[in-house]
Amino acid sequence: MPGEALIHARGLRKTYPGGVEALRGVSLDARGGEVVALVGPNGAGKTTTLRIIVGLLRPDEGEVRVAGFDPFREPVEARRRLGYLPEDAGVYRRMTGWDFLLFTARLYAGSEAEALEMARRGAEISGLGDALRRPMGGYSKGMKRRILLARTLMTEPEAVVLDEPTSGLDVEHAVEVRRVVREYARSRGAAVLVSSHNMFEVEYVADRVYLISSGAVVEEGSPGELLERHGARNLEEVYMKVVGRRGEA
Ligand SMILES: Nc1ncnc2c1ncn2[C@@H]1O[C@H](COP(=O)(O)OP(=O)(O)OP(=O)(O)O)[C@@H](O)[C@H]1O
Ligand SMILES: [Mg+2]
């Protein structure tokens, strides 16, 4: 439902074994139709936050809801509504792109017809065309990211969590991935939470931004609000003003 927070996190705290205090009370929301960016330097706690939201990691404290469901107490309900692209996702090198989409679709779909429709949707989102017939071992980094993004979106999740979807991509792939992400949120009324280091990208893709540093949200707002608040010409300036002087682990 547009306007409703489909991704909701409050007061997340996480200390890893060994004593690294990765999160010190992170709260964020993403509503339907909205692309929200979680931005911060290496080690700020982005991946930790996203892994908690999708239910892969348990917070020490705090609350998460995905489309109203608790990913730990109601994992089946939450996961059915979630799409997650991990930071370090790999591909099956010997499988073709198309076989991968169809194989994954069959895990989700109730019938073969539905699986085919889902895989076709994935094929279109991937933009890979004839390359879908080739084994994924021969894909470039950009092509791998595109097929994994397609796999994440083809099941039409209401809540999408993308950990650095454009990391390592050339301009053309990155532009296309941003376009796909925006279009997906708009057309499906889905909430998309995306992590990034790239402020230029964020300015383009995000309706709202959370800046995270050393495990805490240090700034939040629409790109326009952040520019105005800090008298900055672009978000990179805002980032340097807010995060740059803090010094990161
Ligand atoms: N499994 C783990 N065990 C111990 N410490 C961890 C673990 N995973 C992450 N950390 C630490 O927690 C902090 C936050 O890490 P996290 O991966 O969430 O940051 P990030 O913002 O995603 O960084 P990057 O931009 O490099 O991906 C870092 O100090 C990191 O070293
Ligand atoms: Mg990370």
Describe the model.
With 249 residues, this protein is of the alpha/beta class. The protein is built from 9 helices and 9 strands. It has helices at 46-53, 75-80, 97-108, 112-126, 141-153, 171-188, 199-205, 223-229, 235-244; strands at residues 5-15, 21-31, 35-39, 61-66, 82-85, 159-163, 191-196, 208-213, 216-221. Strand 1 and strand 2 form a beta hairpin. The longest helix is centred in the last third of the chain and has 18 residues, at 171-188. The protein is globular, with a radius of gyration of 18 Å. The model has no long low-confidence stretch (mean pLDDT 93).
Q: Characteristics of this structure?
A:
249 residues; alpha/beta; Rossmann fold; three-stranded antiparallel sheet; 9 helices; 9 strands; 39% helix; 24% strand; globular; binds adenosine-5'-triphosphate
Summing up helix and strand content along with how strands pair, one would put the structural category as alpha/beta
What's the CATH architecture name of the domain at 5-89 and 158-244?
A: 3-Layer(aba) Sandwich
* Topology as a string of helices (H) and strands (E): EEEHEHEHHHEHEHEEHH
- Mind telling me the C-alpha Rg? 18 Å
In helices, the fraction of residues equals 25-40%
Largest sheet: 6 strands, mixed
CATH fourth-tier homologous superfamily of the domain at 5-89 and 158-244: P-loop containing nucleotide triphosphate hydrolases
Number of helices: 9
What is the quaternary state of this protein?
A: single chain
By CATH, the topology of the domain at 5-89 and 158-244 is Rossmann fold
Low-confidence stretches: none
CATH class of the domain at 5-89 and 158-244: Alpha Beta
Give the ligands present: adenosine-5'-triphosphate, magnesium ion
Distance between the termini: 39 Å
Which sequence of strands runs across the widest sheet? Answer: 5-6-7-3-8-9
Q: Averaging pLDDT over every residue, what do you get?
A: 93
